[in-house]
Design brief:
single chain, 223 residues, alpha/beta, Rossmann fold, Transcription Termination Factor Rho, Rna-binding Domain, Chain A, Domain 1, 2 domains, six-stranded parallel sheet, 46% helix
């Protein structure tokens, strides 16, 4: 079997507790959604929302998407703009499971190329890792991907990522807590591992390798 040259990791439920996103990030963005729409940089976002859902108030559409936790690019982009302020002021610190940062450091030293693929915008991903409880971890990552590359449950998205990072699928390991995402990655030829975090009540998959934390991932794949 070919050695793993690159790792692509999800965030929510994989590197970061679901509770942080649900109980900290989402309420913070929702409370500031209306004010954020008045910012000049939000104008293209509002226009995209209006194009996607015509004849509906933009704010109401965004709130509905938030209620549904919709993986919609304009919503994720606007949330990223809002969180930018929270991270900058120190009101928000990116939460990580304690096993994550030490293993990321080990993999980086070993020459494994690390990437992120999350439904949150690339800007939001950089903020979380750049202002994490473990400091700025963005230098560990060679690239970040969001839904602009495609939905996380479609194999074609993983094809595009592998092309983008110039690594054959068989040499890429994808980490996520969501079985359907792992299914899509596996169909595209990537190797997969499900993070089964006890605190997030993740249901273990019977179709993919599973691990309780990043330390176990490293052991299972000899990384």
């Amino acid at each position: 079997m070919l050695p793993i040259a690159a790792i692509v990791t999800d965030i929510e439920g994989t590197t970061t507790p679901i509770a942080f996103v649900r109980d900290t990030l989402f309420p913070y963005a929702r409370a500031r959604l209306e004010a954020a729409l008045t910012r000049p940089e939000a104008a293209p976002i509002a226009a995209e929302v209006a194009r996607m859902v015509p004849n509906a108030p933009v704010l109401a559409t965004l709130r509905h998407w938030m209620d549904e936790d919709a993986k919609v690019t304009p919503l994720k982009t606007l949330q990223g703009l809002i969180w930018d302020e929270g991270y900058a002021t120190g009101e928000i610190k990116g939460a990580l499971y304690p096993d994550v940062a030490p293993v990321l450091r080990r993999w980086t030293r070993a020459g494994i190329r690390l990437h992120v693929y999350s439904s949150g915008s690339v800007a939001a991903q950089r903020l979380l890792f750049g202002h994490s409880v473990e400091g700025d971890l963005t230098p560990f990552f060679a690239g970040f991907f969001d839904t602009k590359v495609g939905p996380k449950r479609e194999p074609a998205s993983y094809d595009r990522i592998c092309i983008g990072i110039n690594v054959p699928p068989a040499e890429v390991l994808f980490l996520s807590d969501i079985e359907a995402e792992l299914d899509a990655a596996s169909t595209a030829g990537l190797r997969t591992c499900q993070l089964v975090r006890a605190s997030d009540s993740t249901e273990p998959s019977d179709r993919h390798q599973t691990a309780a934390d990043f330390t176990e991932v490293a052991r299972l794949f000899a990384l």
